[in-house]
Amino acid sequence: MQWIYLIFILSWVGHNEIFVPSSPSDDAYLNDTYKESILKKVNLVRSTGCFCGRKYMPSTTPLKWNETLYKSALGHAKEMNRYNFFAHYSIEGDDIGERLEDYGYDWQVAGENLGEGQKSFEEVLRDWINSRSHCKMLMNPKVEEMAVATHGRFWVQHFGKKMPPNTKKTGRKYTH
After folding, report:
1. What is the rounded CA–CA span in Å between residue 27 and residue 172?
2. What is the largest CA-CA distance in the chain?
3. Is 168 exposed, middle or buried (0-12, 13-18, 19+ CB in 10 A)?
4. pLDDT 10s digits, 70-129
5. How many CB atoms lie within 10 A of CB 166?
6. At what angle do helices 121-130 and 32-48 cross, to 10 degrees?
7. Which of 85, 110, 138, 176 has a Cα-to-Cα distance from 162 of 20 to 30 A?
8. CB contact at 8 A, 171 and 41
9. Inter-CA distances, 39 with 32, 36, 63, Å
């Protein structure tokens, strides 16, 4: 039954294609309508549960959109486009945690999904679901916020959970 429901979700997701930039200088999803549409599709998958490879990931809590995560995702997408590389590290070697800190996001948990060459959010979402590690990040119950950005041929999805107030970070907890 879970497979049938997931197939329905994936077919529904593909029916509502949304804006993709027409040139590498265009930034997608600045409009709140697009952000809401992306968030709704991600939360639909999270609310249903799915198989990530052979492991079933049960339904989990919905995510909220976070503008700081959007800015960091867009910054990484722009950097990959500008320097023509594809990696979870910046051109200077910074990982997701360091890049989020540069944007002022005081994270407790952080994660990142990347895509390259997909023509729509629906296509990159399907690819992330079909990739065991990307799917597990998408379904991670420890994250509470997310954002997706695209620039040129690159897609970046950032996930996070902020540090509780009055908490000091000891060590680094993040996944990608």
Report:
1. 31
2. 46
3. exposed
4. 999 999 999 999 999 999 999 999 999 999 999 999 999 999 999 999 999 999 999 999
5. 5
6. 20
7. 85
8. no
9. 10, 5, 7
Residue 137 in contact with residue 154, Cβ under 8 Å?
no
Residue with token string 């945690």: 97
* Residue 60 Cα to chain centre, angstroms: 16
Task: Report d(CA 67, CA 145) in Å as an integer.
Answer: 10
**Residue type at position 42:** V
Cα–Cα distance for residue pair 38/29, rounded to 1 Å: 9
DSSP letters, 115-146, are EES-SSHHHHHHHHHHSHHHHHHHT-TT--EE
- According to DSSP, the residues that pair with 161 across neighbouring strands are 109
**DSSP-derived 3-state class of residue 85:** coil
